[in-house]
């Protein structure tokens, strides 16, 4: 998508009209203003196409939610709202650094621009990292998109076992969330699944699982603790247990969840690629007061990616 | 580059068409089995729609002519333009690759659940869907480019209403490409996801809905048919004016009607779903809005006729195609009304009536428009004149062949012959045989046409700047134009794009030259003025013959 930007940087500054052109002005434009305005128009039009494309998915979401609200209710509880919220903050912060980078580019401060672009890039990395952990957690619980990889049977089995576990637990002792030791001592048929009810009960067991399940977090990123993913998943999941028969309904929700967040994630990756590209250009000092359109246009794209997430987050995570 | 590619796709689609028609010579097996037949008609549709008709005029003609018409050097994003072409090539490769996997048999509309669950040609379907997805982006980027170019790069002094009508139609097309094609993109992605991952969006057992696919698909594909036809109408507007040597009638009406068709086109997709089980209320609303699209379309047709009225008609090849366009497109458009009325549509849906209707508007419309433009701008693009006589013969074969192919299909369809059926009852055979003969005649006509044009590249006379007497800016530059579109010391002179008083025929050049600066604006004229001026026919740009 690098060609999505209008501006060229022809090296020739020669003139054929007796006056000098900005070396970055392309041959078919009469002035830099025209070039910049054209680039902006082109980018906004392209953003409109992106909105239409995601619009199709939002439409599918609307139709499905209207028809199968219980699927959304059941499914979204499996999501980690805290992680989603952190991701939202991360993207908003990266939009801020991006806008700042545009400003410094306009002020001819290429070094500052490079630094800010690097921060934006790191924000994107953080977002993708958290996303990775979210997806991995889903995978480990047997939740994924569609059938072949979904091993939804695992999900269903886990739901069954923990339902039985709960039954047994309620028979022997009132369910408490604050006394891990007591419940932990109870015999549980089969493996105790993670992420479901008896959060604290499972926590002690689950710790061992998590250590293998989650890779150590990336060095950069937003500094979340290794176990935080599992722990807060439990905390957020709380006492939400799934009736095994509802597992299929959850699948409906997760189809749309993975399609929307997956497509969005792809766009984040593309955006990160673009940011890296102009980062290197900023390092080379290519941007000036008159020629900073690439930063501006990539900024527009990044803001759109952020905006789409701001819509996705409440629609997927904050259903109640 | 686009022209060669797009015409090659037309050839491929045309071969599939001839295979379909040949198979239909008899009710049973003629040259292929039913399974093969399903794949052949699907590929005919898919190749024609995605590789030829949608990119066709904007890519092959618009790319070349539009910047010159605007008096500028290039489109706004030249490298993006090249990217569009690379995407077309890539999409095309994917499509052709699907042939290697056995081809697709779902119909070009990929309806669920057949395409997601029951069709055995999984890999081919994924391949073709990916190809269509990529082609969609080729279309989107072309739309972005054209829209930005018309906003930003008009020559100095050229207002919006001094743009030729071909540009207006490309502008309306660009709006649709930009807004509608992304919805196709996501629909195809969802279809691929449904096929490979069983996400369940179109599968009732998982809470999905197969009719939802139809809504998504037609939300794009209806504007798509206007993407196909509007550029052809733009060509016709310009061609009619030039070969009538008369100012286009109702310039602003035609310009605005293009935009109106583009906008209304987004509101009528449900007329493809009348029998899908959607509610009657919804059907009624879609039917009503569909009828309303006839209004801007009719405005154009009447304006073209009014342009020709009392004009000095030159029956050159391009004009013949443009005039046949009016005739044939009107038939296609009027039969669209049969389909737009729900009651009749219940009877006609998925019959040959619909097939005839859309071939009349797509072939009779877009292809004829494309050929009109090809003949009109051929000397400008290649600098060579082609043989008029053989061009006329080719036109006659194409026109007669076309009508022979598709007119019987209206009757067949109304009598119940279903579409996409390999087998048919004996009562329809006569119609099918007539249709097939027509198809071969058309094919012959197209081959002859190709021969005439290609021959001109080697042995044609050198073309003057303005052989036909056009008044838009492309006729002020050389044939073919220099790299920067206009000779360095001869910037284009901007004015009313249809001022035929400003040009005169010069025998020694066998072409026209600009003898006066064109008027700045088309003064608002009353019909009386038009008639009075028509009576003074001699005063129009005097011609050699």
Task: Label this structure with key terms.
heterodimer, A: 320 residues, mainly alpha, Four Helix Bundle (Hemerythrin (Met), subunit A), 2 domains, 10 helices, 67% helix, 0% strand, B: 545 residues, two-stranded antiparallel sheet, two-stranded antiparallel ribbon, 4 strands, globular, disordered C terminus
The helix/strand order of chain A is HHHHHHHHHH
CATH architecture of the largest domain in chain A: Up-down Bundle
Biggest beta sheet attributes of chain B: 2 strands, antiparallel
Proportion of residues in β-strands of chain B: under 5%
**SSE succession of chain B:** HHHHHHHHHHHHEHHEEEH
Biggest sheet of chain B, strands in spatial order? Answer: 1-2
- Taking all Cα atoms into account, the compactness measure Rg of chain A is 25 Å
What's the total count of β strands of chain B? 4
Low-confidence stretches of chain A: 1-16, 175-240
Low-confidence stretches of chain B: 538-545
Query: What would you report as the Rg of chain B, rounded to the nearest angstrom?
Result: 23 Å
Chain pair with largest interface: A-B, 45 and 44 residues
Q: What is the name of the CATH class of the largest domain in chain A?
A: Mainly Alpha
- Give the fraction of residues assigned to helices of chain A: 55-70%
Which topology of the largest domain in chain A does CATH recognise?
A: Four Helix Bundle (Hemerythrin (Met), subunit A)
Distance between the first and last residues' Cα of chain A: 38 Å
């Amino acid at each position: 998508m690098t060609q999505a930007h209008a501006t060229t940087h022809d090296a020739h500054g020669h003139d054929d009209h007796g006056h000098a052109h900005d070396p970055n002005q392309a041959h078919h434009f009469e002035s830099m203003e025209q070039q910049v305005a054209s680039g902006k128009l082109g980018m906004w039009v392209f953003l409109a196409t992106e909105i239409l494309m995601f619009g199709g998915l939002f439409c599918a979401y609307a139709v499905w939610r209207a028809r199968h609200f219980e699927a959304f209710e059941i499914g979204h509880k499996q999501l980690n709202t805290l992680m989603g919220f952190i991701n939202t903050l991360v993207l908003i912060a990266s939009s801020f650094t991006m806008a700042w980078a545009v400003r410094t580019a306009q002020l001819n401060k290429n070094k500052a621009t490079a630094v800010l672009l690097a921060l934006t890039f790191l924000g994107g990395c953080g977002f993708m990292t958290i996303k990775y952990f979210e997806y991995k957690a889903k995978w480990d619980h047997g939740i994924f998109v569609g059938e072949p990889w979904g091993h939804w049977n695992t999900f269903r089995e886990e739901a069954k076992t923990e339902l039985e576990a709960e039954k047994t637990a309620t028979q022997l002792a009132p369910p408490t969330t604050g006394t891990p030791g007591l419940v932990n001592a109870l015999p549980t048929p089969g493996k105790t699944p993670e992420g479901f009810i008896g959060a604290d009960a499972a926590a002690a067991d689950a710790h061992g699982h998590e250590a293998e399940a989650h890779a150590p977090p990336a060095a950069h990123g937003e500094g979340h603790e290794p176990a935080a993913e599992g722990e807060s998943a439990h905390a957020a999941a709380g006492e939400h247990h799934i009736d095994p028969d509802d597992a299929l309904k959850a699948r409906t929700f997760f189809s749309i969840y993975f399609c929307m967040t997956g497509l969005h994630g792809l766009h984040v990756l593309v955006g990160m690629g673009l940011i890296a590209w102009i980062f290197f250009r900023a390092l080379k000092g290519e941007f000036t007061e008159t020629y900073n359109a690439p930063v501006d246009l990539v900024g527009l794209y990044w803001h759109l990616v952020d905006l789409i997430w701001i819509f996705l987050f409440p629609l997927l995570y904050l259903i109640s | 580059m686009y022209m060669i590619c797009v015409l090659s796709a037309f050839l491929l689609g045309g071969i599939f068409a001839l295979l379909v028609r040949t198979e239909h010579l008899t009710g049973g097996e003629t040259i292929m089995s039913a399974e093969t037949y399903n794949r052949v008609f699907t590929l005919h549709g898919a190749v024609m729609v995605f590789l030829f008709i949608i990119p066709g005029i904007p890519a092959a003609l618009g790319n070349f002519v539009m910047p010159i018409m605007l008096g500028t050097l290039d489109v706004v994003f030249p490298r993006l333009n090249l990217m569009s072409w690379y995407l077309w090539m890539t999409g095309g490769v994917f499509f052709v690759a699907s042939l290697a996997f056995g081809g697709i048999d779902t119909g070009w509309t990929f309806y669920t659940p057949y395409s997601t669950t029951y069709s055995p040609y999984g890999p081919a379907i994924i391949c073709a869907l990916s190809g269509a997805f990529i082609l969609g982006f080729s279309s989107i980027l072309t739309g972005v480019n054209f829209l930005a170019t018309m906003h930003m790069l008009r020559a100095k002094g050229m207002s919006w209403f001094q743009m030729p009508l071909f540009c207006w139609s490309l502008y309306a097309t660009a709006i649709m490409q930009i807004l509608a094609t992304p919805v196709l993109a996501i629909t195809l992605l969802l279809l691929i996801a449904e096929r490979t991952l069983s996400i369940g969006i179109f599968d009732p057992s998982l809470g999905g809905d197969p009719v939802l696919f139809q809504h998504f698909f037609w939300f794009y594909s209806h504007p798509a048919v206007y993407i196909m036809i509007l550029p052809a109408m733009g060509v016709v507007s310009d061609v009619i004016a030039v070969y009538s040597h008369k100012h286009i009638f109702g310039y602003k009406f035609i310009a605005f009607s293009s935009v109106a068709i583009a906008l209304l086109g987004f509101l009528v997709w449900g007329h493809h779903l009348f029998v899908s089980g959607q509610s009657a209320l919804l059907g009624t609303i879609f039917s009503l809005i569909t009828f309303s699209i006839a209004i801007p379309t009719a405005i154009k047709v009447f304006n073209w006729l009014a342009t020709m009225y009392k004009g000095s008609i030159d029956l050159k090849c391009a004009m013949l195609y443009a005039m046949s366009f009016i005739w044939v497109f009107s038939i296609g458009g009027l039969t669209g009304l049969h389909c737009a009325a729900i009651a009749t549509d219940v009877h006609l849906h998925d019959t040959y009536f619909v097939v005839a209707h859309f071939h009349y508007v797509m072939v009779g419309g877009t292809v004829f428009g494309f050929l009109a433009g090809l003949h009109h701008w051929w000397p400008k693009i290649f600098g060579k004149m082609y043989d008029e006589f053989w061009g006329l013969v080719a036109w006659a074969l194409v026109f007669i062949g076309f009508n022979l192919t598709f007119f019987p299909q209206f009757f067949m369809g109304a009598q119940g012959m279903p579409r996409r059926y390999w087998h048919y009852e004996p009562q329809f055979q006569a119609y099918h045989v007539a249709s097939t003969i027509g198809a071969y005649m058309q094919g012959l006509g197209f081959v002859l046409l190709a021969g005439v044009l290609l021959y001109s590249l080697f042995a044609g006379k050198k073309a003057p700047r303005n052989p036909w007497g056009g008044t838009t800016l492309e006729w002020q530059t050389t044939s073919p134009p220099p790299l920067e579109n206009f000779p360095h010391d001869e910037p284009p002179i901007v004015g009313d794009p249809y001022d035929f008083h400003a040009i005169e025929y010069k025998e020694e050049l066998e072409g026209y030259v600009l003898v006066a600066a064109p008027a700045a604006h088309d003064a608002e004229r009353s019909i009386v003025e038009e008639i009075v001026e028509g009576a003074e026919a001699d005063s129009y740009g005097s011609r050699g013959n």
